Every structure is written in C-alpha cells, then in structure tokens.
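Notebook entry, structure prediction.
Reason for the run: the old model in the group folder had no record of what sequence produced it. Starting over properly, with the input documented here first.
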Amino acid sequence: MDMHTVVVETAGTTAEDVLAVSRGTARVTVSADALAAVAAARQVIDDLAAKPDPVYGVSTGFGALAVRHISPELRTQLQRNIVRSHAAGMGPRVEREVVRALMFLRLKTLASGRTGVRPLVVETMAALLNAGITPVVHEYGSLGCSGDLAPLSHCALTLMGEGDAEGPDGVVRPAAELLAEHGIEPVELREKEGLALLNGTDGMLGMLVMACADLARLITSADITAALSLEALLGSEKVLAPELHTIRPHPGQGASAANMLKVLAGSALTGHHQDDAPRVQDAYSIRCAPQVAGAVRDTLDHARLVAGRELAAAVDNPVVLPDGRVESNGNFHGAPVAYVLDFLAIAAADLGSIAERRTDRLLDKNRSHGLPAFLAHDAGVDSGLMIAQYTQAALVSEMKRLAVPASVDSIPSSAMQEDHVSMGWSAARKLRTAVDALTRVVAVELVAATRAVELRGGEPAPATRAVLDAVRAAGVGGPGEDRFLAPDLAAAEAFVRSGGLVAAAETVTGPLA
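New structure, fully documented this time:
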C-alpha cells in the first residue's frame, strides 16, 4: 500500500483503513473534532471523579472487585494496576499486523468521545503506531468478553513505558527505551483510562477484517483453479450459464459462475465430456463449484456486514453518552464477531474440501478421462503429484478441525461476575490458521490443474494460458520427471498469497468478482 495518512474521526473507521495501518505504511492522525469530543467526555469523567458517589471504573475496583470504593489518592495506582495485572498473556507472540490492528482499533474507540480518556492518551497511542513500536502480545489471555483483555493490556503497558515491545527494526527491547528514542513520553493513567484501554473487541475485529480481505482473494483464486480443473477434465462449461444461476438467485453463486465462465472463454478443451467415456454430467466437485464457492462468498458478505457495524461502534464499559450520562453496559461481549469468525472457518473448510476433491480427480487415471496416473511422467517410475495431494488432504483435515466453533464454549471468570464469555479471540486465531491452510490448498490445486492442462494438450482458454505462463514464471515447474516438489508448492503458495493468480487471469478476463 502507498504511504498515506489515515484520519481517525469520532464516527469510526473502515476496513480499508485498518488494513492500511496494520499491513501497510499509513500514518495515523486524529482529527481536531475527535480530540474535542475526547476532551468533552473527559470533563464528564473529571466531574464524576470529584463527587463522592461510586462510578464503575472511575472510583471503584473492577469485575468482581467493583464493590470497593477507591479513594482519590489511590486512583492513579488503580489504573496502573489494572494494566499490569491484566497483562497476563502467555504463549507465542502474536503477529505484528494483528497487534497494529488491535492498537488502531482501540484508538478508534478512544477517539469516539465515548470512553472518557484524555486527549493525551489518544495522541500517544497514535504516536506509538506512527513510530512503528509494536507491543509484545501473546497468543493466550483473551476470553473475548470484557474485551480482549490481556492482549489490550500488553498494548497499554507499552503506552505506560513498561514491558517489552518490538521496534521498527524488528528487535524486541524494553518499551521505555523505545519510547525514549522516539521522543514519546510514557502516559501516567488517570481515572477510567486503564479500563478504557482494555475493554474492547479490537483484537478479534482486526483479525476478522484481515481474514475477510484474504478470503476475498482466495475465493476468486478458487474460482480460477476450479475453472482450470474443469478444463483439464474436459468438463462442460454449460453448467456455468447465467440463466441457470438466475433461477437460484444467491448472489455469490452467480458471481463465481461468471468468474469461471470468463476464465474458460475461448477454450478448445471444454465440452468434450462425451468424447472418450460418455458423461451426462460432471462430478459434483466440478459441476457444483459455483454453488460452494458462492456460498462462501455470501458468508463473507455477512461477515463484512458485521465487521462494518463493529468498525462504527464505540466499545467500552462504562461509556459516556452524548447527554453526559456515564452508563454501564455489555457492549464488550464479543458474540457478534465470534459467530462470524466461526462461520468463516466453516465456509473456508468446505471451499478447501471441494478443491481437494478436484485435485484427487485430476490425479486418478480412472476418473481423469485420459490423463496419466498422478500426472506423472512415467507412472511407476515417477510418482508425480501423488504426495502433493496427501499434503493437501492433511491441510483440509486440519481445516475441518479448525471449523469446530469456538463461540459455543464459555468458561466463567472473575468469580462468576463474568459468567458467559464469547471466546471470540480464539475463533479469530483459528480462522487465521484456516486461511493460511486454504491458501496452500488452492496452491496445490493450481499445481495439479496447470500440469494437467499442459499434459492434456490442445488449446486452452486464453486466460488459462496467461495463468500457465505466470505460474511458470513464478517458479512452479511443469510436467516432467520427478523432482524435489516442495519448492514448487512453496512457489505456488506465494503466487496465490500475493494475488498473482488473480492478477494473471485478469490480464485476459478483466476484473473478476
């Protein structure tokens, strides 16, 4: 992404801005209007803090400890302590892009004027992002309710100049050193601020936004590999006719069918399913490819709808309402996000499953309509792509396990005060693994389908020819004697992951859905 500035406003943010900050080089600035709204909300908190009445998060403890009233002289310590005690994550480090999304989305809510923090906190969070300072956040610690508590606490710890963080050079060092090098003063938290930094669905939402972007590319990639497999198997493109999909008007189905039809335009290989061994219909994995990929598309659209609503939300507890009231609420519960994260994992697993079935069909001489066994050069002496399909099957099996929903689980916490949690963070973490696996599954089908088209001979579609040329230029070898196969698969994975497959097809087809 090109360098540009993302302006944070009170109304929320967009998926494009999240990606620009988390994965790109965009700088962050907070609008004057947002800073004014933050200051106004802070005045409400300061006024409440001066009164004797207990207000949750301002002059009380937290969670099950909210029954204790905290005197003014202990409130700075209270806010500092909540961050230190809640920064209790364990396990491997979370990826830099996830942490940057987490921080940016928390900044988005802080800038809404609903949390009651000082403008200083907002500006310092933006400064951390712009300096490329990334807190060390660990895999485990969030139950997806009361927000992504431990992950956000590790970020807040860096804001205070404590704990460890990764610098722009990728080296992990004490946060205090990194802040000093970049001229950033650590923040001494005041009433409500520690709580406001922790109480959001930002981690699971950031991972949802990134998964949506990745899956959009992978669905289109799967449409392309499905078209190549249909072509290599001499299948019928008639099942892709628009009128067949209009009568079952799921929008995703129509889009995937149209993609496949564009890729296959001009092929001399399709429509010969009656020539060698008569077939009235192609197998489901070929014929129903648009229905399955289309259902994944529609699931993705629903997930984007939920993500868009969450990107416009201000998630904190308590919140400062426009009329000045400070009210407790349950908006930090991650259920809306957790459900769609799980739904996407289910859809991704099925898309991987049907791609694997097409690959297996290409390799089986009893079902491939004249292709050599395992697409090998000299079957028996050579094994061809036999074990590539094993690898693909192992990935699909893992994706099926990852499709088991996390959001149906709940383990009560905080002495039964927080007695129902979403597990949305866990749903997001497993979805990331599933998306990586799907990338590899599509890559294996690409290797098999391109090899099969070349072995078939004849004149493939112009778009297929463009894909063949691009995939070979990317380092994926074609037919021939057995060779060390892992580098070919890795090159195909990189080609799919980078968007190269879609870009190659689009040089002929124009934009694909």
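Summary: The chain has a mean pLDDT of 95.
The old model has been moved to the deprecated folder.
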